[in-house]
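Retro notes - structure team

What went well: the batch runner handled both jobs without manual restarts.
What didn't: labels got mixed up in the shared folder, which is why I'm recording both outputs here explicitly, each with its sequence directly above its tokens.

Job 1
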Amino acid sequence: MRRSLALLLPMLLALSAQANDPPPSKPIKPASAKEESSSPASASAKEERKPSSKESKDSKESAKEAAIRAKEALAADELAARIAERLSVIRKEKDEAAARSVPRPVVRPSYAPAVRKPESVKTKNDHGTNSAAAAGGQAASHANIHWSYKGEGGPLNWGKLNAANAKCDIGERQSPIDIRDGIRVDLDPIAFDYKPSRFSVIDNGHTIQVNIGAGNYINVMGINYELVQFHFHKPSEERVNGKSFEMVAHLVHKDADGKLAVVAVLIERGKSHSLVQQVWNNLPLEKNDPVQALTTMDMSDILPVKRDYYTYMGSLTTPPCSEGVLWLVMKEPVEISPDQLAIFSRLYPMNARPIQKNSGRLIKESN
């Protein structure tokens, strides 16, 4: 019995030990890549790798944008360079065009050209003669000489404007003068032979001048002088014993030799004068543009009733101031109206040469 118990006890211990041991486990297989990726550790690693991939993407996009910006900047620089180049070309073309439009300076020779002698001009001067014939051929035409009654071209400078005007400065028998201390003698009357004639009126820039048709004469001391023209001065150039008059009309005559005789008709304010009005009716609208009147003029109408006169030798009262002119100044003045005087004053307020020295010349007057 004891032997059975002894045999049974080890068997019970073996069974008990077997019951207490855990069941045998299966062999552990190595994890696959898929299982690793699905495992929490793999997920964590994957999550850790995702941010680095996003950063790489952002980095790529930044690089791409930088490249685009660099390309755009390069394109802008190229465009600016092209614009600058084009503007330079346009500016150059503009400068060349401006240079072509500016006239080139005229290079003058360092030497003075030879002085050309003035040609003979046949224009009538204020005393109605061709300059070559006036005062024995001494007078040069003043049509092209810039002289006037004031300023730089005034009477004090006439002799300096042209060599032909030398007599204006150095002449000894210049006109006009203050007529005084005349010798009373029985002078032969002036024989006037005037008739109605055609005429024209011109404003020559110095006065109003009336050119008369041929056929009107005076005879003085047996010499015939033909009337060429007459013109006006304001105030009168001549004075009588210091007295000046409102105006004077100079009737210019010329003999066969070209010598001059001037009849001066003094004018004062008073009643209207028909011949003066006839002149004013034909005033030209432009200077040096003569008006041919449609009527005739009788120069006898401008003469005073009394024909007494003063006489002396003098000169032209305008350049070239040639001497050898016979002056015949009527003692009795004629009248014009204030309105007629105002018309001339609007054109020529003053066109009279100043009084010249008598220089001891002889003045005769009729009784």
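Job 2
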Amino acid sequence: MRIDSVLPNRASPGQSVIIQGDGLEAAEKVFFGDQEVSFEVDGETLVAEVPDGSGPVEVTVEGASGTSEPSSVTIE
């Protein structure tokens, strides 16, 4: 499971971001830092909702095959 990009990489709480990568169709959980967020899967793309907070945060995706390497996003 791999994250290639999170777009946009600067987002506000409540905004949706698009997470693209490999193996994401098997995602079970998405985290912004230690906050689990709601998401939808569309093929190799995830659409996740940005949680409350501010500043840089690491996004990770968990599934049966393990956890992705983190990708950085800034919550504005």
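One thing worth noting from job 2: Strands lie at 2-7, 10-11, 16-22, 27-32, 35-37, 39-42, 45-49, 55-63, 66-67, 71-75.
We'll revisit the folder naming next retro.
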